[in-house]
Amino acid sequence: MELPANRMWTAEEVAYFLDLPVKTLYQWKWQGEGPPVRKIGRHLRYNPAKVREWAGMDEAA
Prior knowledge:
This protein is mainly alpha-helical.
């Protein structure tokens, strides 16, 4: 799966990137953990740069 860099990622795309179940992302959000997330309407969206930074894969480092 090729992940787009020019838009916010869905929970499914973040789960693919981090190689974990989507359910884990929802649990982390509920617990206040995990990568930074924004709720847009009923949907969770993640900034790809923030996800990489949270995962320790910051390209600037």
